[in-house]
Design brief:
Its EC number is 2.1.1.297. It catalyses: L-glutaminyl-[peptide chain release factor] + S-adenosyl-L-methionine = N(5)-methyl-L-glutaminyl-[peptide chain release factor] + S-adenosyl-L-homocysteine + H(+). With about 280 residues, this protein is α/β, with parallel strands linked by helices. It has twelve helices and nine strands.
Length: about 280
Amino acid sequence: MTTLLAARRAGLERLLAAGVPGAAQDMALLLAHVLGLTRADLALLSPQIELTESQVAALEAALTARTSRKPMSHITGHRMFWGRSFAVTPAVLDPRPETETLIAAALTVPFASVLDLGTGSGCILLTLMAERAAANGVGVDLSDAALVVARANHARFGGYAHFVQGSWFDPVQGTFDLIVSNPPYIAADEMAGLSPEVRNWEPHLALTPGGDGLAAYRHICAGAAAHLTPNGWLMVEIGPRQGAHVSTLFALAGFESVGILPDLDGRDRVVIGQIACREPVI
């Protein structure tokens, strides 16, 4: 029989040999996943506890997947985001800590309605709905498979949200206090430099629009004003080198108070802007 200690050591050796980053943390997460435990509960187990045959087989499958650089979220089926565990599949981008910068920014402004363009797993929209329980929102995505994931997350977390299929503003009706988006922004010449977890496993439709990576921002900025309430806000995630370009697109589209916000690593991550008031001042 295989003990927990032996499984951990052998698995860690395999992950290290495969060049998996964060191998020790991933090994702990894989063990917890296979055993159906949290990492905290796993730490309480005796290292000499014996794994069952089915657990050994499940761990082997998980290790094989991870050494092929399959993302951890695709193996475990979920990813933490803003303190909540979201379902994830290969049809959606893996929610990332950097995107929490967008959540933090959105929660600094008043809103009762939100439009999320390119919603993917729904993590942005559903987090905002959870944090502002009286708000309502619409999530749009071109991918039917992504919307299956978003709706599953919605069923789990609730909130006044619904999801529609389509390209950017095409299926959208009405106006919103806040428009958010984490659109595809990787330039074509940057794709080769991405990690294998991203380049080989995540949906390219959600990663890159091709070319200079700015096509989605051009489209969003061109259509946002028509779908914002007076003094409404537009907030988008960006690549670290895109701040100046996207800020210019905001300004040309009539947005004011345009700003660039950094993520926790100090890199440009979110561009925000407020549409000029379109109501007469009395």
